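Question: Send over one sample?
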Amino acid sequence: MAKTVEEDLNQLEKDIRQLKIEYEQYFGGGKKRPPSELEWRIDNLLKRYSDRGAQMNYGQRFRYSNLTQMYSKFREMFRKRMKQKEEGTVQRHFGAAAREIEAERARQRGATQKSEAIEFPFTVCWKDPDHEKKKVEQLFDAFRDAKLQMGEDTKPLNMEAFQKFVRQKTEQLKKQKDAHEVEYIVTLEGDHARLKARVKS
């Protein structure tokens, strides 16, 4: 039975996450060989859809593009670490580069175990999300990471829809409560990630 586009994209996202895990295990000494077979499978799936844009709707093309960018970023990072491993050089990172690498490692840990990368409950508040997009991005990342930690599906999440949601929710609460600021909270409750909004007192 032929797979649908959605099924292939689901598999692609799952494989990219698994590739990150297996490369971290390899660089950490837990695996003797890099996950070349998994990387080959991802490459083949990406190539299969690179010329099939007409077969995908807008949402699928958007998701495919995001997955391609994510994979390219991780592959470049793995290539550099592979080179350093082969050359036997010791990495020394400073400043922004060090923080970026540590943040990436924290995100990776968050995807595989309940890490302390982002502390929950995570809170952020604003008067107008359209003028504080950095905070919206932080909230989006925190909510996505919380879902990953809880093993929930993050595929339906996208930044554009999230921005629209918080804009409408903020306006709604400000009108109802005659408030100037709205606070958003990401929590881990039971087996689920929760996103709550309330007016800032």
The chain has two domains: 5-91, 122-199. Residues 111-116 have pLDDT under 50 and may be disordered. The CA atoms of residues 80 and 86 lie 10 Å apart. DSSP finds six helices and three strands in the chain.
